From TrEMBL:
This is BTB domain-containing protein. It holds the Pfam family BTB. One of its GO terms (biological process) is protein catabolic process. It comes from the Eukaryota. Residues 16-138 form the MATH domain. The lineage of its organism: Eukaryota, Metazoa, Ecdysozoa, Arthropoda, Hexapoda. It comes from Nasonia vitripennis. PROSITE patterns: BTB, MATH. Residues 176-239 form the BTB domain.
């Protein structure tokens, strides 16, 4: 079974998807035969893929080369052109020619057995830490993509209209059947609807089923402002309009407490996408304290690519006493 390593992220434009696979601390010794990337999604056509990298090929004619393959894990057939590029420590090493009219059926792959010579990679490697990035640019068949994108836009528009109607109910006390209160100074009660909240949270659904006559519920483990954002998502499907690390951390934990899985995933994705030099250490702390693996990988990847910037932005170090310096 292939070892799963690295971190993958992708970006979409009108008809193109660019996906990058980062392998930190890359060495040939670590790859005994082959490694695989985590499965990742593209938003353009909701495709699922994974990469496979072969560093030691069994075929004699390929033994001095790195081979790279992209596997399609979706039910949708990939139809378009593909181009691969490999970087070692931010420097492009090899760019393949674009392969036109490529077709990858479901659960099958496409790649290059002789992508780049191993000696070329070794020459570009540093003595210690190396990070390797493989970039794949996929240009989909424009007509098929246009139709699919049009269909997706219509679905999104219908969803927006539905959420607009739902948002008119919040925080309207008329016809509400449950009141949430908070043990915080200056906090106001929220007059909501059991059906909406139960539909979003299995935890609340169980409470309402076990206590059908319940009309007032005090919230003790979540701050009022965080609970309001959670309720806003339940009614509208929207995240907060502004980003704060602490807010999204608390919202992620509230979503976990109330088993709102989709909201928890969206909060994790937002924390990953907003990693910056200003919040890199907060992000690492959240990742480690709450076991958010993808945030840990994203923060590590950010440091790997912005090491000098991160160090230069650190202007204050804790003052150490003489006792702290004794070993």
């Amino acid at each position: 079974m292939s070892l799963i390593v690295g971190y993958v992220w992708s970006t979409d434009s009108m008809y193109t998807n660019c996906c990058r696979w980062l392998i930190n601390d890359f060495t040939f010794k670590k790859i005994t035969n082959e490694v695989r990337s985590p499965i990742f999604h593209t938003t353009l056509l909701n495709q699922k893929y994974y990469w496979q990298l072969y560093a030691k090929n069994e075929r004699k004619e390929d033994k001095d080369y790195l081979s790279v393959f992209l596997f399609n894990r979706s039910n949708i057939i990939l139809n378009g052109s593909i181009r691969f590029t490999i970087f070692i420590n931010d420097n492009p090493v090899e760019i393949s020619s674009e392969t036109n009219d490529c077709v990858i059926e479901s659960n099958k792959g496409f790649g290059l057995r002789r992508f780049v010579e191993s000696s070329t990679i070794k020459e570009a490697m540093l003595a210690n830490f190396n990070h390797l990035v493989i970039l794949c640019e996929i240009k989909y068949n424009s007509e098929k993509t246009r139709k699919k994108k049009l269909q997706m836009n219509l679905e999104v528009q219908r969803l927006k209209e539905f959420h607009m109607r739902m948002s008119s109910l919040f925080p309207n006390p008329e016809f509400s059947d449950i009141k949430f209160t908070f043990n915080e100074p200056d906090s106001l009660p929220l007059h909501l609807h059991k059906y909406v909240m139960a539909n979003s949270s299995p935890t609340l659904a169980n409470i309402f089923r076990s206590r059908p006559q319940l009309r007032i519920l005090e919230i003790k483990k979540v701050k009022c402002k965080v609970f309001i954002e959670m309720v806003w998502y339940a009614y509208t499907g929207k995240l907060p309009e502004y980003f704060e690390v602490d807010l999204f951390r608390e919202l992620m934990l509230a979503a976990k407490l109330y088993k709102m899985d989709r909201l928890e995933i969206l909060c994790q994705a937002a924390l990953c996408s907003e990693v910056s030099v200003e919040n890199i250490f907060e992000s690492l702390e959240i990742a480690q304290n709450y076991g958010v693996k993808q945030l840990q990988e994203r923060a590590s990847e950010y440091i790997a690519f912005n090491e000098i910037k991160v160090i230069s932005e650190i202007t204050e170090f804790p003052k150490l006493s003489n006792d702290d310096l004794n070993f």
